[in-house]
Please model this.
Amino acid sequence: MPDALASQVAAGEVVERPASVVKELVENSLDAGAKEIRVESQRGGVALMKVSDDGCGMNREDAVLSLERHATSKLRDKEGLSAIATLGFRGEALPSVASVSRFRLTTCEHGAVAGTEITVEGGKLRDVVEAGCSPGTTVEVRDLFWNIPARRKFLRSETTESAHIDHQVRLHALASPETRMIYRREGRVAFDVAGTDDRRVRIGDLFGRQNLGKLVEVARLEHPGMAVSGYLLPPEDARKSRRGQYLFLNGRPVEDQVVWRALAEAHRGSLPAGRHPVAWLWLEMDPLLIDVNVHPAKREVRFHRPAELRTLILEAVNRGLQPGASEVDGMGDSESQAVRPAEMPAGVGLVADTLAETDEAKSPGPSPPPEARTWRAEVQEEFVREERPTSSPTFRVIGVLEGRYILLEEGDGLVLLEGEAARERILYEGILRGAREGAAEAQGLLVPLLLELEARDADVVLRNADNFREAGMEVESFGGVTVQVGSVPALLKGADPRQLLLDLVDELVQSAESRSGRVQTFEKFASELAKVGARGERCRPESAKALLDQLFACDLPYSTPAGRPVLVQFSSSDLRRKFGR
Ligand code: ADP
Ligand code: MG
Model:
């Protein structure tokens, strides 16, 4: 496969949307030891994304090399992938991004006389020249997807893409408080947060200072190979979804169900059902205990010792939730200092806030953090839901072909939608949304279904029991190789549960994770469940409109979770050409 093509394929995995480019670039800057990172985006990142850092920079040779596939510098002197502690390790991001944009890299090592500037267009190297520049690296990405119109066309509105970039930069700003982070959006400074070694300052800068007085500390707690620390908001500030929960693993934002479940468990009794605590947790873990290579965009990881991690989180959070808790812990670093409730806005503190009182009682405390920018957490929490693409493509349904495809007329030619692929995307996002909001809707079975499986298959199902539960499907062992299914996800209530489970088992057994004895990440699991659930989707003219509406309410409507296209376009010019015009 020619290299440019391979990069574009990889780009399909790595570059989901503009925000994923920002994520990769910022992670590279952090890996390079930057103390200051400037991020700039224009028109939702589609016109421009620019990330500049004052990190170590590269010499000419390394700069050229960095654009070759799998040219990571982060594998040198390491025993292997699992020992990688830095944020990136696949050596795929830069070439992928460069293959789907107009790309410029300017970089200079500290103390070097001159720097290097490299331009690439759609994966083709255009120019390598000497350039004067300050030490560090700047990457500019223009016209994302200019050479892949199908991808470009199905990006969401600029406002939506911009909100995702915003979220991404904030995540990294939280993950690495010691780095100054400046973010400009459409030419205006959205935020500029100074580097600090006090995480509360960063939380206050990004979430509003009014929260600082209420922060409950989760004092650092260690267990061999792992440690956790962070902050919570008290139970009365809990939210209806998990969107107020932030987890950082070795300096990188991640999603993880083990941690969120332990957090929920620690709050059992103090929170009504359906409420989720707001939390910022920083996890440090021996890289040997993590499998980072399970998700192309590295959003999810797999822990080798989930039970120990769960206990650690449970214990640390429980200690934090007990009145006077911050004093209990013996780690005694500056992290364990109490928060002064001085910033508590009138009205909020009136709820019997024993935690804040305890804090006050023992708070000679650090001085309040400096002036913070006002920004409301709610804005971020809701953005994904509010967004409706302003430029949602307008289609006219022409008809149905073979029961598989919906034919659509659109501004420029003909579009074919594959029903199964569309359903797969809709189910996938529905399953993830259910899990994220902590309430996957389940449809209980009147008579639990008993399935006798092969021993190996039963094992795979039971190892994935948490994933099943998260998706709204209760499965448990019924002795020996018999598995009992108590409910199915409401999203799939039309399906035959027996067939669904058997098909899913087939998929699970075939996956690389099962073969190596690992448990799948929830995202991967959800994508397989969606695939199985979508099987046999029949397209009908009368339901075409509803399917389209559901599809375009999705975040990423143009492809299945596995990257297959949902829509294929024959533009007017394609058609004219075929007819020799
Ligand atoms: P990875 O991060 O997985 O190694 P990337 O494609 O993201 O792969 O980057 C390739 C290489 O380019 C990195 O290993 C690093 O050596 C170099 N590099 C990328 N960005 C920067 C940067 N901002 N500063 C210094 N070096 C960088
Ligand atoms: Mg990288």
Observations:
- The chain is about 35% helix and 25% strand.
